[in-house]
């Protein structure tokens, strides 16, 4: 399974092939620019994501992770820097982008049933009703939810709501899935389940994923590469390759030597004042 | 207490209050505290009401009042929702229009009644215009606040999902502002009825209000009839309020406030 030799990762190969889904260059974001209350949320961030890759962005709370995601999804305008999605400059939210918000409680529409929530982006893309209904049931089943179509999001548990939000983002088969701390507010067991769900979705659909988290273990478990951000205003501290292979398993992977080695390295990065670093 | 019993008790208190008020009315009028030309007895009034209910004229007058109420509400709502949303989305337009709206809101709709009668006469359009005018300003303010207080995550979600234009307006903006709009409509409904009756009473257009005036001009013997129509206006108000209550409970069933009402009611029944 996972090789101990540091061979070029699949992502490194495809990076060479040049199929870049997302590229971020010198991104800077200042809120209330030019006003006395101006606040630099992102100082200077550059990285790129290639097709099929799973990239995690880690950083402490308030580092500007949500801001970064809003910029790279086209929801917020950067103050400076270059952003490109599938080679084209990013100006608005691309049609081929799926987004899962940090706060699913506010992002799922309470006035719609789960089916209507999930079907909304399909309706916006002109998918006919019958086809939409079929697709909604399919995608809900694929995130492990059966027969919640007629229920409302607020009738479901937090973990189930997050699954609905994921189903909604996947319903229109986006090329890139962006997720903002999607598992931050669910219990540990649900969290493991959802992590494995995302990994299997990614395997089945061959989708590219960028996921923001403040949990280092989660980042290592999920990703091919980790972009480590500094505290506010954020800069890229280091981009760490995660050569753990495609197959991951909650207990075994997390107990492996490679995992623990990466964990130690990342902890050093995010805690610069750890004893042996001094 | 079991659920069945508390259900029947719920109706007992308001019903008793109505009966008590009617008895008090009979007491003070029959007891000679008021003369019949000031305030007819409850029994005379209810008899007059009973007689009126049997005539087509009674129902035609209610029909005219409700028709004006309905048309005025529809016109004011459509205008308030479209104009209010447009203003709410544009900061410059909002700041420019805010003071104008406040001024118009401060003008009592009754104050323009003479002008409206002069231009449109004692007609249905006169009533509808007066109602729409009176109800539009407070309603448009509710719409603007509702749209402006939209959760940014709700808007971001719509943009991220590629929901745009008219669809976004209908399935995202309106539902998200609907708690404010519902409150605005509920208040508007009450003032629309008042304006309808006043325009009939003062402006002479057909409806409950004109029948009140005619009964008053009919001299002392017609006083119970006048009070019967007053009672009718009150009952109509209750019916419209009740209809809005039910509508809100159904359309807004997803909203937190309605969910809380439901779960509190469940708790109370235990
Ligand atoms: N709309 C805004 N206007 C002004 N400042 C903002 C705005 N949104 C965020 N900020 C500021 O930018 C900084 C980064 O915020 P952001 O939400 O991106 O952090 P985060 O890394 O996602 O935090 P968390 O881990 O708590 O979600 C914070 O200091 C925040 O106060
Ligand atoms: Mg955040």
What's the arrangement of secondary structure elements?
The complex is a heterodimer of chains A (278) and B (270).
Chain A (H helix, E strand, L loop, with lengths): L9 H8 L2 E12 L7 E12 L3 E5 L6 H8 L7 E6 L2 E2 L7 E4 L3 H4 L6 H11 L4 H14 L15 H13 L5 E5 L7 H18 L2 E6 L2 H7 L2 E5 L4 E8 L8 H6 L1 H14 L8
Parallel strand pairs in A: 2-10, 3-8, 3-9, 6-7, 7-8
Antiparallel strand pairs in A: 1-2, 1-4, 4-5, 9-10
Helix pairs in contact in A: 4-5, 4-6, 5-6, 8-10
Chain B lengths: L2 H28 L11 H12 L2 H34 L1 H16 L6 H8 L3 H25 L3 H9 L4 H39 L4 H10 L5 H29 L4 H14 L1
Helix pairs in contact in B: 2-10, 3-4, 3-6, 3-8, 3-9, 4-6, 5-6, 6-8, 8-9, 8-10, 9-10
Structure, explained:
The complex is a heterodimer of chains A (278) and B (270). By secondary structure, chain A is of the alpha/beta class. Chain A has helices spanning 10-17, 65-72, 104-107, 114-124, 129-142, 158-170, 188-205, 216-222, 250-255, 257-270; strands at residues 20-31, 39-50, 54-58, 80-85, 88-89, 97-100, 176-180, 208-213, 225-229, 234-241. In chain A, helix 4 crosses helix 5 (129-142). The longest helix of chain A has 18 residues, at 188-205. Chain A is globular and about 55 Å long. The two termini of chain A are 36 Å apart. In chain A, 39% of the residues are buried. Chain B is mainly alpha-helical and 270 residues long. Chain B has one domain: MetI-like (MetI-like fold), CATH 1.10.3720.10. Helices cover 83% and strands 0% of the residues of chain B. Chain B is built from eleven helices and no strands. Chain B has helices at 3-30, 42-53, 56-89, 91-106, 113-120, 124-148, 152-160, 165-203, 208-217, 223-251, 256-269. The model of chain B has no long low-confidence stretch (mean pLDDT 90). Classes of the chains: A alpha/beta (278), B mainly alpha (270). Chain A binds chain B through residues 70, 73, 75, 92-93, 95, 97-99, 101, 103, 106-107, 109-112, 120-121, 123-125, 152, 154, 168, 172, and chain B through 151, 153-154, 156-157, 159-164, 167, 171-172, 175, 178, 254-256, 259.
